[in-house]
Amino acid sequence: SETTSETIRWFLLFMAQHQDIQQRCYEAIDRVIGRDAEVTMEDRPQLDYLEACIMEVLRLAPPAPLNLAHSVERDTYV
User: What are 45-56's pLDDT values in tens digits?
Assistant: First the structure.
């Protein structure tokens, strides 16, 4: 849950700094969902711009930036 709350905080910060992008996200949600409904997982495929914005936040501010890169120590054959 810590990583989720951290990602949401970063998302809100970036949206406050980039109000043009915030407006485009709002327009996408308004166009797909409307103003009276709630967003559900079924709506996700239609909200590609919003998903791209979330992915960009994860790229710019990863929730666990100190994780070491994953690599194998020796060759592995399957």
Answer: 999 999 999 999
> Among 12-26, 45-59, 63-77, which is the least confidently predicted range?
63-77
Q: Which residue is it, tokens 């849950």?
A: 1
Phi and psi torsions of 30, nearest 5°: -65, -40
Residue position matching structure tokens 């998302």: 11
- Angstrom CA distances, 48 to 38, 44, 51, 65, 70, stand at 17, 7, 5, 25, 29
Under DSSP, is residue 58 helix (H, G, I), strand (E, B) or coil? Answer: helix
At residue 53's C-alpha, the angle toward residues 49 and 58, to 5°, is 145
